[in-house]
Amino acid sequence: RIGERVLLCSCSLTSMCRAGAIRTDDSCIVLKTLPCLVRMCSKERLLEERVEGAETLAYLIETDVELQRIASITDHLIVMLADYFKYPSSVSAITDIKRLDHDLKHAHELRQAAFKLYASLGANDEDIRKKIIETENMMDRIVNGLSESSIKVRLAAVRCLHSLSRSVQQLRTSFQDHAVWKPLMKVLQNAPNEMLVVASSTLCNLLLEFSPSKEPILESGAIELLCSLTQSENLALRVNGIWALMNMAFQAEQKIKSDILRGLSTEQLFQLLSDSDVNVLMKTLGLLRNLLSTRPHIDHIMSTHGKQIMQAVTLILEGEHNIEVKEQTLCILANIADGTTAKELIMTNDDILQKIKYYMSHSNAKLQLAAMFCISNLIWNEEEGSQERQDKLRDIGIVDILHKLSQSSDPNLCDKAKTALQQYLA
């Protein structure tokens, strides 16, 4: 059949394109393969061709922003895909079991293919996501897809939801209107790892501070679930678990922060801080930084977990870590230095003070600046005990370094050093 041959040819060109043998902007991809695959999605085609066409197109455009944009405006593809959810158009008589099985199988395949293609189309562009969500009953279809009997359809629906959850606007509107977090939380219970990875990635987006879903997700027991993910042997699940907790802790109430620390346990926190994967380490440091924000919270957390946190900070600053890891760790120290009582944990720890001094003279300006923030927070004049702290820091040579940095060619370092020196003169 001509349709089969055309599809086979398109599949081959798609594979070559994804393998890097053909450029994504080559005319045979943009002007032939992509339009051909879009035509395969029309309702005039055989069911098998529609499924294969949509799945191949999803794969072709998955990682290319320009191909996603071209596909979205070719032959009204976004609207055309809505027909995939309308099969079968009439329900077969219950007595015709063979026909019923056939219809169910094809209905699942069509829905799976449509969700996959919508996920690829909406991977990057905000306007495309908006068009997808505005397609008739789209959010209802995704919500229903998350509860499908077919695990393949459920996975494709989660992928589609994940793609659309990258939209700030949709998180605030459509996602809230349809309470997508409810079926998503169900998916996260006892799902296979492949689905857990995508579902937990979506949850990370739903837990961003501007998402109205954040509060109901918290109330549904998400902390316990996410803490358990951080113990997974699967790297992607560990990253997503700690990432979601980091988002949850951002500008959160003290109770939520305490619940996170209790759920994680100090032992698990140390485990994550010594993880061999830099993503896990960075997200864990990001979590700590979010937990240690606003003075009352900093003082409260450091009064209960101060010893362990200072120990972890010391280990990282002494370890063989990249600049970003050390910068994030120094920023955590700067937050601790901003506490009212917490700053004493730094001032009474000579080892930490020497490390801050060392990083003030480091060859990397980012680390110098982060160390300077620690010093600024420790010597600020308007705070109780500032004179004693200034005297101690002068004694260990901090003022001499500040004078040197005030002559720095880096304007940020220079300004920060001059501001710090003014605290001594005030």
TrEMBL record:
Protein's cellular compartments: Cytoplasm; Nucleus
Residue intervals passing through the bilayer: none
Biological process according to GO: proteasome-mediated ubiquitin-dependent protein catabolic process
GO terms for cellular component: cytoplasm; GID complex; nucleus
Keyword Nucleus in record: yes
Keywords: Cytoplasm, Nucleus, Repeat
SMART domains: ARM
Main location group: cytoplasm
Name of the protein in question: Armadillo repeat-containing protein 8
